[in-house]
Design goal:
The chain is α+β, with helices and mostly antiparallel strands. The termini are far apart. The N terminus is likely disordered. The strands form 3 sheets. Strands 9, 10, 11, 12, 13 and 14 form a 6-stranded mixed beta sheet that branches. Strands 4-3-2-1-8 form a 5-stranded antiparallel beta sheet, with no helix packed on it. Strands 5-7-6 form a 3-stranded antiparallel beta sheet. Helix 9 packs parallel to helix 11, helix 17 packs parallel to helix 19 and helix 18 packs antiparallel against helix 19. The chain is built from 22 helices and 14 strands. About 55% of the residues lie in helices and about 15% in strands.
């Protein structure tokens, strides 16, 4: 016979049918998602449940920001009267997730006057199955969230008959695992770079999650494709579609040995310029990008380094440096690998300030300059130079380097975004905002940094509501980035939300033992004294 049960968590009973918590005559109603989070934690009481597992279990099949989970935990703690600094119910495990530490039991007792629905509790086998489902959902979540960092050209007014408007959608990965995903990303990124150097084309970036009809609103022609690697065989399908007529103008399947990857990429670029309608001259067709390297292994190591560098953590930065070095061992003339290596030294200065920082920055300059000497026509090389200049607080030189990058590629979204960030560093956030909006139009999938830089500018412009919108989005896209957490805590104080600000401060202390804002600002490139003082004051109010 099925039993009537309820869940007891510490001193509280939990009714998942009404989303209520209660004890000793006190009843509190919580949001349904907060109750679901509690149920997942209770199912594995005493065990660490990662944030990814919670997102997959509570929001299955839906892409939500990490902020949604954070808010649910905050609301649960408030309802339970739990102190995050000395928890009795929900414990934060730094860089891992959460653990329910209160005792959990089932009971047949029902509060007076309340009718309970039958709620089956998972058996041991069901719990194991649940764990497998969560793990599978987590892997799907990682793959679906792969960020495609495409490039686009100037989105200014178009004169009919002068420019062809084209969007390159992120290529679909048909293989299993992250290796296939970043390979597909690299191939579509390189195709964008190749085509962006043709003055007869205007390229418009598309979000990785955007449906085709949205891209069609901006560009006349749509390039899409898929990539699959099986052992040493590479299969790439490419399609060209006229978005006005929805007619597929061209499609081709390329099946080659994986060792011929670069030759295949060149062939795809050439074939597209041949079949694209319009009057592209032979001279323009010949301006397709020359390959950055002819070493497959170096190219693979470079892509891995790029992905790790963007995480902006000490351990990931060190691992990225290792991949860039491996790429250079395989190809000593790989300019972009030199640029990436330079950025890891500049980032080291930011992440691990010490009394020996000058040699670190000197090494970064040396490597960035080597990259420029190898190939002065690559815009990414000037972005790397600007990054090193910015960490040295030589902001005017950084702006000049970014201007050169934009001169080489008028659609270089990252250059517009970084320039916007630098104007905030020097105390001119009003100039930052239009530059960052331009970057977001050019590349809707710019990642967490675009939102961080925009939120930071709005905070110093006293636009607190817009600051919070963008900083929360940045946090959802990169939950481990310290700078994002700091600015989010500051913005919450500015908005009068001291409780949530203190919770962010607690997360910062858990993430970085011995953290102090003053020590962090010693290596931070913010040179505006007024903004530094305000940031320190806001963080102090948050409890840092």
């Amino acid at each position: 016979m099925e039993m009537l049960v309820r869940l007891q968590v510490g001193d509280w009973w939990a009714d998942r049918t009404t989303n209520e918590l209660g004890r000793a005559g006190d009843t509190v109603r919580i949001e349904p998602k907060a109750m679901e989070v509690l149920m997942v934690l209770a199912a594995r009481a005493g065990q660490v449940v990662s944030r990814e597992e919670l997102l997959a279990a509570v929001w299955p099949g839906v892409v939500v920001g990490d902020e949604a989970l954070t808010q649910s935990i905050i609301k649960l703690r408030r309802a339970l009267g739990d102190n995050p600094r000395s928890p009795s119910y929900i414990e934060t495990i730094s860089k891992r997730g959460y653990r329910l530490i209160a005792p959990v039991r089932q009971s047949e007792a029902v509060p007076a006057g309340r009718s309970w629905r039958r709620v089956p509790w998972p058996s041991l086998a069901a719990g194991a199955l649940f764990a497998l489902v969560v793990a599978a959902a987590y892997l799907f979540h990682l793959v679906s969230q792969a960020n495609v960092n495409t490039r686009a050209v100037d989105v200014g007014s178009e004169r009919e008959g002068t420019l062809l408007t084209v969007t390159v959608l992120p290529f679909e990965s048909l293989g299993a695992g992250g290796a296939q995903t970043y390979l597909a990303r690299g191939i579509s990124n390189d195709l964008m770079t190749d085509l962006s150097r043709l003055p007869g084309l205007r390229l418009i970036s598309a979000s990785g999650a955007a449906p085709v009809h949205e891209a069609a609103q901006s560009a006349r022609y749509l390039i899409s494709g898929s990539v699959q690697r099986e052992s040493e065989t590479l299969r790439i399908n490419v399609r060209l579609t006229d978005t006005k007529t929805n007619q597929q103008l061209w499609s081709e399947r390329f099946v080659r040995p994986f060792g011929d990857l670069f030759e295949v990429q060149d062939e795809i670029s050439r074939r597209l310029t041949e079949v694209l309608p319009g009057k592209l001259t032979d001279a323009l067709r010949q301006r397709l990008a020359k390959p950055y390297t002819r070493s497959l292994e170096a190219y693979d190591d470079f892509l891995r380094g790029q992905a790790l560098f963007l995480v902006r953590r000490t351990e990931d930065n060190a691992e990225a440096r290792g991949y860039y070095r491996k790429a250079l061992e395989l190809d000593p003339n790989f300019a972009r690998a030199y640029a990436g290596l330079a950025m890891t030294y500049a980032m080291e200065y930011r992440l691990r300030p010490s009394g020996q920082t000058s040699p670190v920055l000197a090494r970064a300059f040396e490597l960035a300059e080597t990259a420029r000497q190898i190939d002065p026509d690559i815009p990414e090389v000037y972005w790397a130079l600007a990054f090193v200049y910015a960490q040295s607080r030589r902001h005017q030189q950084a702006i000049e380097s970014l201007e050169k990058a934009i001169e080489l590629n008028r659609s270089y979204a990252d250059a517009y975004a970084f320039m916007g960030g630098i104007y905030t560093y020097i105390g001119q956030p009003a100039k930052s905002i239009p530059l960052l909006r331009t970057a977001m139009r050019l590349n809707p999938d710019g990642g967490h940094l675009y939102f961080l830089l925009l939120g930071r500018a709005y905070l110093f412009e006293n636009e607190t509501e817009q600051a919070l919108i963008n900083l929360r989005e940045a946090s959802a896209r990169n939950r481990v980035d310290l700078e994002t957490r700091l600015y989010l805590a500051a913005a919450l104080v500015a908005a009068g939300d001291r409780s949530d600000a203190e919770w962010e401060a607690e997360q910062i202390r858990s993430q970085e033992a011995g953290f102090t804002p003053h020590g962090w600002l010693e290596s931070y490139p913010l040179t505006s004294a007024r903004h530094r003082e305000r940031l320190e004051a806001l963080l102090a109010e948050a409890g840092l």
